[in-house]
Design goal:
about 350 residues, alpha+beta, DNA Primase, Chain A, DNA primase DNAg catalytic core, N-terminal domain, globular
């Protein structure tokens, strides 16, 4: 049936942020930093891609290598390799357009495919990488144990669930499409609302575990199998009372401070979009204190949304001031600051 192109374009205006978040999980990083440069979702790299600041209205973006995509339709065609009629149909279905009233002649669809560059290949890569890892308590994982000990988190080592957190002894680090070296790495399983794995979060470490690897982006997400909104890294079993923080180390630090099971949401954007699992009755949000207030505002937005559905929610912010040379302070910084100072040799 003929699709009304003008109508679909008009209905999509003002909704492109939502449409791209739902249809194209490979844009997760770019959607979290609209207008700012991030790695290209197709060929990788360092910072060659960005979404335009008028994203809501037009949905466009540009890659310094791949070219200009003036609107969301062009962007989806580039990401998927689909022709325009198919992209138009997918967007129309996601908008919920149907027969009646508008004269559009569009029919409702029971489901809309999620757009990703290569979901089957991504699933295979995730599984292959996971199979190369070992338990954090394995003797081979000493760089991970040292990394956590240096951050004052050694108390949480025995509590790491090897079904969620693993160690890779020699993981390739890619930048601008080229391998820049191999480093030990902490891998963590990001689960969706239903508990199923969506992707892996990688933290590249220095060879001796004394800090993060000397690379531009020591923390990276692999291409997700579905949108990450609502999910988290489940660092503890599900209970009626949980904590939630942004990063893995921050969540482990919050566990040290409170004794509470704490999950990691990966970022402020995903923390704000967290969806409570069935049975959750109380949530403590262990927020980062940022100069931009991004962490605090995300935590407050989540608190208001959860309290509206009857979940008791509290926000905890570090009381320490942000150091002059830092952009933020988090609970991992607090725990590290409480460690006894080693005497100078």
């Amino acid at each position: 049936m003929q699709l009304d192109t003008a109508l679909i374009r008009a209905q999509a205006r003002g909704q492109w942020r939502r449409l791209l978040f739902e249809l194209a999980p490979v844009l997760e990083m770019a959607l979290a930093r609209i207008g700012r440069h991030v790695p290209c979702p197709v060929h990788g790299g360092h910072d060659g891609f960005r979404l335009f600041r008028d994203l809501d209205e037009r949905g466009g973006g540009v890659c310094n290598t791949c070219g200009l995509f003036p609107d969301g339709f062009a962007l989806l065609m580039w990401l998927t390799g689909w022709r325009f009629p198919r992209v138009l149909d997918v967007v129309a279905r996601q908008l919920g357009l149907m027969d009646g009233g508008t004269g559009s002649g569009l029919r409702p669809a029971p489901s809309t495919p999620t757009v990703t560059t290569a979901p089957r290949a991504s699933r295979g890569r995730l599984l292959a990488l996971w199979n190369e890892t070992c338990d954090p308590l394995d003797p081979l994982a000493w760089p991970l144990r040292r990394y956590l000990e240096e951050r004052g988190l050694e108390a949480r080592l025995g509590g790491l669930d090897p079904r969620v957190v693993r160690f890779h002894p020699h993981l390739a680090y890619y930048e601008s499409g080229r391998c820049r070296g191999y480093f030990p790495a902490m891998l963590a399983r990001v689960s969706g609302i239903n508990g199923r794995g969506l992707t892996l979060h990688r933290t590249y470490l220095a060879p001796d575990g004394g800090g993060k690897a000397p690379v531009r982006h020591p923390r990276k997400l692999m291409t997700p199998l579905a949108p990450l909104a609502g999910g988290a890294i489940r660092l503890a079993p599900l209970r009626t009372e949980l904590g939630l923080a942004e990063g893995i180390e921050t969540a482990l630090a919050a566990q040290c401070v409170s004794g509470q099971p704490v999950w990691a949401a990966v970022s402020a954007t995903l923390l704000e979009r967290f969806e409570p699992p069935d049975g959750l009755r109380r949530l403590t949000i262990w927020a980062d204190r940022d100069r931009s207030r991004a962490g605090e505002l995300a935590a407050l937005a989540l608190r208001d949304r959860l309290e509206a559905v009857g979940i008791a929610t509290a926000v905890r912010l570090p009381e320490s001031a942000i150091a002059r040379n830092r952009k933020s302070v988090d609970w991992a910084d607090i725990v590290q600051s409480l460690r006894p100072q080693q005497p100078a040799v």
